[in-house]
Design brief:
Layout lengths: L6 H14 L28 E6 L14 H7 L7 E3 L5 E3 L2 E6 L5 E6 L13 H12 L14 E8 L2 E6 L6 H6 L8 H7 L13 E7 L3 E6 L13 E6 L3 H10 L4 E3 L3 H7 L5 E16 L9 H10 L2 H9 L3 E3 L21 H10 L6 E8 L2 H15 L3 E8 L1 H9 L11 E6 L6 H9 L18 H11 L4 H18 L2 E14 L2 E2 L2 E2 L5 E2 L4 E2 L1
Parallel strand pairs: 1-10, 1-11, 14-15, 14-16
Antiparallel strand pairs: 2-3, 4-5, 5-7, 6-7, 8-9, 9-10, 11-17, 12-16, 12-17, 13-17, 18-21, 19-20
Helix pairs in contact: 8-10, 13-14, 13-15, 14-15
Length: 533
């Protein structure tokens, strides 16, 4: 028999989510005065068509089959889930009006919002929910987000607007997982009509309707006149434009060609804030940056080499040079504001230690390496910094920037681990559930997390870590989960599948006539309530 989810468990989840929106415990990083606080001029705007410039191309419009926060941000303009996150990453109802969960966190029942329609006129109901989550939980689906929902064993339609999920085992973070952007819901009619091509033809219930997406040119959405939330949306259209070059994004904001841009390059944040009607917003994030090493390839299969590269990179200089102090040094593989974070001792900058470890591993004379990453200005700057740092220990690095689609094909879509070409990769991760599970399991959770099923591009597989992750998954007891994730973080830190770098800040710039648009701590964008003041 279903039981009410314990109040204690709900309080624990809520507390952690509130904390997830608080300031990083490190206390590092800079604060900005808002443009208006600096006495900046008030910008004006004609019409209600908004342009948002972003740093990369979107990889797809199917939230079930994309793995980047940027694409999720655009998808959220058009599609919605049962639950979502507010500005501080507290879980909030969206298409669900209420939910209950069993005390052992294996059964979840949602009562749905009525009188909601998809953009194609299809009614939103329990059957639509079942169709979407049957798709996500199908192990044969090949969807990039399947691993988030692999514990769903059964979905039962209890009524037109009531649906029940049963998990194969207890999972205390499931409510957070339902709030993840990947749980957004397609029109069942669109899934049937378009199949895999739904990634280019999104149909949801959101405030904006899809018009056109050209990967290299941008995405256009228009106001959903029949949106269920009274009074929204308040603008006529949004055009998202990929602009990888930092200076170009800044210029677009200054001239009014763009109304909102992100990220703002940290080196220009101070100089543009308060000028030309621009406000720069910077807040603590749960985004970690790192350089992953393929632990199945030589020389990265030797833990001494991996630790040596950690000692060889000056993290304080990285924070200063690459982020202009808009970040703090990572002291775990997850950020301090993620649930069940456990602090570790950062690897000190010690070139002699690094050289000694390389000598012990048989690489006294160094080696050549290839470093992959995105092609934005900031990413290239970071990769070139790492190139310079590793040269000090005779590791000759070739930097290879790639556009987002190429990265997705060459890294995330590899079918067999032994076929992976990747050596080093610079990137970041934002656990958009706010929970340690999604900060650890998909990235370093053993063979089950290897691409294409998940994102373990270090191909890191430690049985002790895998056991800790499983122990955390199989209980809803918060203390037991904390102990299991603490052990996992300690082991992973010593094994060093990554050169751990920073926990960053969100960086966005906007014209000061805009309101209601913001970045969440996970770096995702919310435009649902965007308006021109």
């Amino acid at each position: 028999m279903r039981k009410a989810f314990s109040v204690l468990s709900l309080l624990a989840l809520s507390l952690v989510l509130v904390l997830a929106g608080c300031t990083s415990g490190s206390g590092d990083g800079k604060d900005l005065a808002k443009g208006s606080d600096k006495g900046g001029e008030k910008a004006t705007k004609e019409g209600k068509d908004i342009v948002i410039a972003v740093a990369d191309n979107f990889t797809g419009m199917d939230p079930h089959d994309t793995n980047d926060t940027l694409s999720n941000s655009a998808q959220k303009a058009m599609l919605e889930g049962l639950l979502g996150f507010d500005k501080d990453m507290n879980v909030v109802n969206v298409l669900a009006e209420e939910y209950t969960a069993s005390e052992d966190a294996t059964e979840f029942i949602f009562k749905l919002r009525e009188n909601v329609k998809f953009h194609d006129g299809t009614s939103f109901n329990a059957e639509a929910v079942k169709v979407n989550f049957d798709r996500l939980s199908d192990p044969e689906s090949g969807l990039k987000r399947h691993s988030l929902f692999s514990l769903i064993q059964n979905i039962e339609v209890l009524g037109d607007y009531e649906v029940k999920f049963t998990l194969s085992e207890p999972f205390g973070a499931m409510i957070n997982t339902f709030a993840h952007p990947s749980a957004m819901i397609h029109s069942p009619k669109a899934l049937e009509e378009f199949g895999k091509e739904v990634a280019r033809n999104p149909v949801g219930t959101g405030p904006f309707k899809f018009v056109e997406w050209k990967p290299s040119e941008g995405l256009e959405v228009v106001k959903n006149e029949e949106y269920w939330k009274e009074g929204s949306p308040k603008v006529d259209s949004i055009t998202f434009k990929p602009v990888s070059e930092n200076g170009s994004r800044i210029a677009m904001l200054q001239t009014g060609e763009a109304d909102f841009i992100y990220p703002v390059p940290t080196e220009q944040a101070d100089s543009i804030n308060g000028k030309n009607g621009i406000e720069v917003e910077s807040n603590p994030s749960i985004i970690v940056s790192y350089m992953a090493m393929n632990t199945m390839k030589k020389p990265y299969d030797d833990v001494k080499v991996r630790q040596a590269l950690n000692y060889a990179v000056n993290k304080e200089a990285f924070v200063k040079v690459v982020t202009n102090n808009y970040a703090s040094i990572s002291d775990s593989i997850i950020a301090p504001d993620v649930q069940y974070y456990a602090k570790q001792d950062p690897y000190a900058f010690d070139l002699e230690k690094a050289k000694s470890l390389l000598k012990e591993a048989g690489y006294e004379n160094g080696f050549k390496a290839t470093l992959w990453g995105g092609n934005s200005s900031s990413t290239i700057k970071a990769m070139e910094f790492l190139q310079q740092q590793l040269a000090q220990v005779n590791v000759e690095v070739e930097v290879v920037p790639m556009e987002a689609g190429t990265v997705s094909d060459k890294i995330w879509s590899v079918q067999k681990a032994e076929d992976a070409e990747i050596e080093l990769y610079y990137g970041g991760w934002s656990p958009s559930t706010g929970d340690a599970d999604w900060g650890i399991r998909p990235l370093v959770g053993g063979a089950d997390a290897f691409p294409p099923k998940s994102y373990n591009i270090s191909y890191y597989d430690n049985p002790e870590v895998n056991a800790s992750i499983q122990a955390a998954l199989q209980t809803a007891d918060s203390d037991k989960r904390a102990a299991a994730y603490k052990e996992a973080q300690e082991i992973i830190w010593k094994d060093a599948p990554w050169v751990n770098l920073t926990t960053g800040k969100t960086m966005a710039g906007k014209k000061n006539y805009l309101d209601g648009v913001y970045l969440l701590p996970d770096g995702s964008l919310s435009v649902t309530d965007i308006e021109i003041k």
